[in-house]
Every structure is written in C-alpha cells, then in structure tokens.
Amino acid sequence: MNNNKLTAGAIRERAQETFRNHLKYLSGGDIEAWVNLWHEDGILEFPYGPAGFPEFKQGKADMYEYMLNFPKHFEVQFTELEFHPAVDPELVIAEFKSAGKHRETGNPYNQTYISVVETKDGLITRYRDFWNPLVAIESVGSMNEVVQFSGN
What we know:
Layout: H1 8-28, H2 31-35, E1 38-45, E2 56-58, H3 60-67, H4 70-73, E3 74-83, E4 91-102, E5 111-120, E6 123-130, H5 133-140, H6 143-150
Parallel strand pairs: 1-6
Antiparallel strand pairs: 1-2, 3-4, 4-5, 5-6
C-alpha cells in the first residue's frame, strides 16, 4: 500500500515495523524474508567498514548473496532498540545492540549500532549501517576473515 491514504503517524509506524522485522529476520536467520523487506534497487551502505570491506551492496540479488551466510557465521539477538523520530515519517533512525557470538570461533559478537534507514511504501530503499568493525574483527578472528565474509 502506498502512503497516499496514510497519516504521518501510520507511515512512521509502518517504517518502524519494517525495521523491527529487519532485526527479527536477521536474528532468526530468515534471509529470504529479510530481502523481501527491500525495494528492488535498495542500497545497504557501510560508512565505517574496514579496508577491503565493500562500501555498499545494491539490489535484492546482491544483498541476498551478501547476507545468505550470515546465520551460518553469527548467532545474534538484537536488544535495546530505540527509535529517534525524524521529521520525515519514512526515515527511521535507530540505536540498538547485538548480543551473540561467531559460530566458528565462539568469540562474542556484542555490537552497538546506529542505523539510518530510508523507506518508501514500507520497503527499505537505503540503509546506512553504522557499526564498529573492530568488534567484528575480534569476533571473527582476523581482518581477512571479515573481508572474506563481506564477499569482497
């Protein structure tokens, strides 16, 4: 459903629900459902990715391939979700944490995130993922492993 008949509050709630589902599907390992939250040409950006890590992934097929092995490598639960409402009801600004581990190393993966997510008609069009790459490197065991996971 497009936004023409929705109030700003309803649009904001739909955008936030899309974000909640994003977290639910990732932690549950349902990558197919996760990809279906995205606009066909959606873009996932990594402004603070380490050297060798991709700057972005674009399009459902690219994102599916990128995230497909996430559940095999990481066991995570997302916690402490806090939304910061923006003037634009389709813009989601969220702070949250992950508590989990890397399955192969057993090392903890306890990350803090800030996400800036643009949606349109309930689908993610642009997601800027701000996270600490040092946490990922320590969890996975090396910089090379993080870059390999990224598919770069």
